[in-house]
Amino acid sequence: MINTNIKATNIELTPAIRAYVEEKVVMLGKLIDPNDTIARADVEVGQTTKHHQSGDIFRAEINLHIAGADLRTESEREDLYAAIDEAKDELMRQLRKEKTKRTDLVRRGGLALKRMLHRFSRSNEAEDNV
Question: Is the pLDDT of residue 31 over 80?
Fold first, then answer.
């Protein structure tokens, strides 16, 4: 479970917006280690300055703090929910990349250990044949 802090800027944080943000953060939790006790998402949603000629521009920013990484993304759209979705999608991409990086590191370490053991066993076989 990810602790979530939600902040609204220049808009009212309605229960519908809060529920939508929490739903998206739960989706992020699927890619985070369940044993990660420090996982925290700081989410800021809001309206940018009110002087845009094309109408309202909404902004969503998500800062995700997990063990070993701090990830951040932000999005600006004409629809608040679209901005939240885009920020969530970008963070999912970053989480997948981070997870792949860690998995590759473990695999490379395992491969190095396997090669080292293989060399060790070959040297023992050579000594036995002498």
Answer: yes
Question: Which tens digits make up the pLDDT trace of 50-82?
Answer: 665 667 889 999 999 988 889 999 999 999 999
Could you give all domains of the chain from N- to C-terminal order, each with its CATH number?
3-91 (3.30.160.100)
Cβ neighbours of residue 15 under 8 Å, at least 6 residues apart?
Answer: none
60: left (phi > 0), else alpha (psi -120 to 50), else beta?
beta
- As to burial, measured by CB atoms within 10 angstroms (0-12 exposed, 13-18 middle, 19+ buried), residue 64 is buried
Residue 50 dihedral angles phi and psi, to the nearest 5°? -90, 10
| DSSP letter assigned to residue 33 | -
**Token pair listed for 76:** 């600006």
